[in-house]
Amino acid sequence: MSHRATTWAWQQQNLPALQKLVLLALADRHNNDTGRCDPSMQLVAEDCGMSRDSVKRAIKGLQESGLITAQERKVGTTNISNYYTLNMTPVGAISTGGGCSQHRGVGANSPTNLEVEPVIESGNLQTADALFPIEEKKDDAVEAVEAVWEFYKSKINKPTSTLLPERLKQGITCYKHALKIKNGNSQHARELMEIAIEQLADSDWHMGRDKATNGKTYNEWKHVFRTPAKFEEWLERSNG
């Protein structure tokens, strides 16, 4: 793990949530000593709780905005994982290093003097519609969590809150857990998540209405969806 790369990734503003999540995953696997950054597409997908297709679209968007450069690699005629350069230099400059490995903080025998194309200068993509062209479709899980997030904001009265990458990842994990409970029914899975949010909104203690809290609230998204186990605790309240 490279703290420099992770800090840089967090500082990138106005990115769609999925792009930010993938950028953080790449930065998390960046090895500052060796300059390696070559996790497989499947590994990034597992890190982010996303499909491979969504990761591909996010990487394409990050390349177009000049934040990363991807180079295809082969051993003989066999394709292997791409080598990614994190362009931690000003947009428009040529980056000569920055990579990540299959294993966090591990990456021996890194390429040296690797030639890369100049960074393409363009504006940041700011909307989900810009990330997903008309002919492509966002993951059902992402759409479901975005809808649940809007429900959460209205019930908890947090109209300006943002669905940050970490929140999106937590939401996707719990949504997939809810899908298992509801035998793959997306609508019912969303309803389960909304039930958990309603329990949070009804909790005087979490909403700061209990005198013992002195007005302090404990109603962040993570208080419900940090893990599937935590999510289930809120569902059990609805049955109590």
Protein described:
By secondary structure, the protein is mostly helical. It folds into two domains: 3-128, Orthogonal Bundle (Arc Repressor Mutant, subunit A); 140-238, no CATH class. The chain is built from ten helices and two strands, in the order H-H-H-H-E-E-H-H-H-H-H-H. It has helices at residues 3-11, 17-28, 41-48, 52-64, 128-131, 140-156, 165-181, 186-202, 222-225, 228-238; strands spanning 68-75, 78-86. Helix 2 (17-28) packs across helix 3, helix 6 runs parallel beside helix 8 (186-202) and helix 8 (186-202) packs across helix 10. It is elongated and about 65 Å long. It starts with a helix and ends with a helix.
List the helices and strands and how they pair.
Layout (H helix, E strand, L loop, with lengths): L2 H9 L5 H12 L12 H8 L3 H13 L3 E8 L2 E9 L41 H4 L8 H17 L8 H17 L4 H17 L19 H4 L2 H11 L2
Antiparallel strand pairs: 1-2
In a nutshell, what does this entry contain?
This protein is mostly helical and 240 residues long. The protein is built from 10 helices and 2 strands.
Quick tags:
single chain; mainly alpha; Arc Repressor Mutant, subunit A; two-stranded antiparallel sheet; 10 helices; 2 strands
